[in-house]
Design a protein that fits this description.
Length: 199
């Protein structure tokens, strides 16, 4: 095992990281872990809750603090994982397509659009993870949850059903938690790993 990719299932203030490599016909899970992306004293969803009734200056400061914490923790989480799996080389991360193309510059702009506000908090953590990967010189591969299993299966020369069955079976060998999100992240990592290897 010399190279691997990391599949990420991101949530508000935390994420699951699944590190995957391949060997012949086999997919191998090297590591799975949950990482916290926010200091406990801070709000996990500042746009949607706390900042709604705060003065502008306080709202901007809170969002800035949440972003800073998320960025630091994402960088630390990826750095720690890569260090622990060394000397194997990480080829990149795989993560869902971002919930927004970008995040509005101010809290007021976010609050002015309900569609953006419903996705803005998730964007904080998604962006923290992708930014951390970029700072660590890792490639970032985006996937759509609806078709990532098919893409990974095609890259591996398998049917989506067979690959899904194999990935679900890891839950027995690795132990809980191992939910659908882990399987999707794993499929993303497999696709990214095969794609990166072919470049």
């Amino acid at each position: 095992m010399s190279e691997y990719s990391i599949g990420i299932e991101d949530h508000y203030a935390w994420a699951n990281l699944v590190s995957v490599t391949t060997s012949g016909p086999n997919e191998i899970i090297l590591d799975k872990r949950r990482v916290e992306l926010l200091d406990r004293r801070l709000s996990a969803s500042p746009y949607h809750h706390q900042t709604l009734h705060m003065p502008c200056s306080g709202a901007e400061k809170l969002v800035r603090d949440v972003k800073t914490s998320a960025n630091k923790r994402a960088q630390s989480a990826l750095s720690s994982l890569i260090g622990e799996l060394a000397p194997a080389k990480c080829r990149g991360i795989a993560i869902r397509v971002p919930p927004l193309p970008d995040l509005s510059a101010t809290v007021a702009e976010v609050h002015a659009n309900a569609w953006i506000m419903n996705r803005a908090d998730g964007m904080i953590y998604h962006h923290a993870l992708t930014q951390a990967a970029t700072q660590l010189d890792l490639r970032v591969f985006y996937f759509e949850k609806d078709n990532v299993l098919e893409l990974a299966a095609h890259a591996r020369g398998k049917t989506a059903r067979d690959l899904e069955r194999r990935l679900k079976a890891f839950g027995t060998t690795l132990g809980p938690p191992w939910r659908k999100g882990h399987v999707v992240a794993c499929a993303g990592a497999i696709f990214a790993h095969i794609y990166a290897t072919q470049q």
